Amino acid sequence: MGRQLTLHILRYNPDKPEVKPYLQPFKLEEEERMTLFVALNKIREEQDPTLQFDFVCRAAICGSCGMLINGKPTLACKTLTKDLPNEITLMPLPVFQMLGDLSVDTGTWFRELNIKTEAWIKTEKKFDPTALEDRMSNDEALAIYEADRCIECGCCIGGCATANINPDFLGAAGINRVARFMVDPRDERSEAEYFEIVGTGEGVFGCVGLMACDDNCPMEIPLQEQLAYVRRKMALAGIKM
Ligand code: SF4
Ligand code: FES
């Protein structure tokens, strides 16, 4: 017989603001290799079909299932209940628009981020389908790959003190996104152009250095290094301007 778990889940329906948010306890028996994804599904199937939460891949790939698990922003599909105490509190990620219970809208936030950071390669070069492919060094390709591993789960944003008080802050995910294009040799943006995007209080200079993002990123992207890289480049660009 497995442990008796109690999941205290935040319930709130933004369409019914007259019902204040509250924590609802659900009891269930732990099973071997149970993830929080399995636990939440069991609760929805067996106890309350109205419970809202997001999952797509169940394999830490899609980034849908970020939530606060005992206060820590992380992926529910990657979290085994055996690593948690008997009492588990689940809340939605802050910062993002709440859709209901544990479900938040990270998609709109990340779409806006991509627009704000102009997250595409900017070049004057005309595409020539007959030309040989441009080569890049292994180090450049690896640096791009490292930053591109972001699955847009929002855990770095939900746990960030600055993002929680300043809705315009790009956050670690945004600064990492900018770093991805800075290291790309095909991108022809000048440092001054990048400064406009990220050399501000809403960008890299808004970070107060608590580095919860680095602790919370389930993909273990070296966010501290990425922030330091962009901050160094933007500080130098600011001196030159
Ligand atoms: Fe999630 Fe990490 Fe990307 Fe932040 S940087 S959104 S924590 S994968
Ligand atoms: Fe896709 Fe958790 S369900 S990351």
TrEMBL record:
PROSITE patterns: 2FE2S_FER_1, 4FE4S_FER_2. GO terms for molecular function: 2 iron, 2 sulfur cluster binding; 4 iron, 4 sulfur cluster binding; electron transfer activity; metal ion binding; oxidoreductase activity. Its cofactor is [2Fe-2S] cluster; [3Fe-4S] cluster; [4Fe-4S] cluster. Residues 141-170 form the 4Fe-4S ferredoxin-type domain. Pfam families: Fer2_3 (PF13085), Fer4_8 (PF13183). Keywords: 2Fe-2S, 4Fe-4S, Iron, Iron-sulfur, Metal-binding, Oxidoreductase. Signal peptide: none annotated. GO terms for biological process: respiratory electron transport chain; tricarboxylic acid cycle. InterPro entries: 2Fe-2S_ferredoxin-like_sf (IPR036010), 2Fe2S_fd_BS (IPR006058), 4Fe4S_Fe-S-bd (IPR017896), Beta-grasp_dom_sf (IPR012675), Helical_ferredxn (IPR009051), SDH/FRD_Iron-Sulfur (IPR050573), Succ_DH/fum_Rdtase_Fe-S (IPR004489), Succ_DH/fum_Rdtase_N (IPR025192). Belongs to the succinate dehydrogenase/fumarate reductase iron-sulfur protein family. This is Fumarate reductase. It comes from Effusibacillus lacus.
